[in-house]
Structure formats: C-alpha cells, structure tokens
Design a protein that fits this description.
Layout lengths: L9 E5 L4 E5 L5 E5 L2 H13 L1 H14 L1
Antiparallel strand pairs: 1-2, 2-3
Length: about 60
C-alpha cells in the first residue's frame, strides 16, 4: 500500500518482473499482472490477513 494511492481498497504485488494491484475485498487483479503462482500466493496471504489489510488501508486513508 502507498500513502497517496487512491481508488478502491487494494494492495500491491511487486516482483522483479511484474506488478499488480489487487482488490482487498474480491482479491481480483484491478491493474497490472503477475504470474499465477505469485498471484495465488498473494491471495492466500491476503485471505489470512484481510483484517490487517483493511486496517492499514483505513489508517493510510485517514492520514491524508
């Protein structure tokens, strides 16, 4: 997540060769692309940490 990033709540996947934005609620790629293995790992992590992702999104949004 980035402080000045807007739009629907999302997180970023960054790899040496690709990047993507993934919606927190649906876990769908909303921009960019990454390979399936990386996306699957990120989605699994996000499911387990969804409350943390929402909390951080709110914190960053309120800081603006």
């Amino acid at each position: 997540m980035y402080f000045d990033d807007h739009g629907i709540p999302h997180f970023h996947i960054l790899t040496p060769n690709a990047q993507a934005k993934v919606a927190i609620d649906t876990l769908e790629v909303i921009a960019g692309n990454v390979d399936r293995k990386t996306l699957s790992a990120a989605q699994t992590w996000a499911i387990e940490n969804r409350a943390l992702l929402h909390r951080r999104w709110r914190e960053l949004s309120e800081a603006e």
